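Z., the sequence and structure:
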Amino acid sequence: MNRKTNNERKPQKILIAGGGIGGLTIAIALREAGFDCTLFEKTPTLSEVGAGITIWENALKVFRELGVYDLLSTHGMFLQKGTLGTYDGKILSGIGIDTIVEKNSKAQLLGIHRAELQQVLYKALPNDLVRFNSPIVNIQEEETKITIILKDGSKESGDLLVGADGIHSVVRKYLLGPAPPRYSGYTCWRGIGKIFEG
């Protein structure tokens, strides 16, 4: 959310709503750029939520720039191929990385559990930057600042607010009004992965 400030005025304080993968990555990037920021996460702690995720080369480039690539690579596994199969091991379809990337490209695909990715990003930040158990319930805009109101009644003000608070985003609702989720036309299957050696 952009404030109505002088175009030459650099934001001094940035508030981030949401401590998922997006919010944590934004916080790391903002600190790298020299901004002061605080992240507000509604849950009491980071929990084991979600399933595996494949990080493609474009995102890996970002993580290299942010200095977390090496640690991520120790928590995940670089993929050479992927298959879909039945519970009894019958392979239904498969694809190799060489069919995805250009020949002689150094592109990589990293498979990692979402919770481990989230932990790596969280540990790259100072302990006091993420405020847990801090759900945002309301937002107030003024000419030179933006203020969030937390569930406990406390308030925090900044120059800019980033909404990374998921499908039930308070920031999106404030900007666009209430609206039900809209089906985008994509369907995701989640399952259990098995690593085959050799």
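The first strand starts at residue 13 and ends at 17. Residues 21-32 form the longest helix (12 residues).

Let me know what you think.
H.
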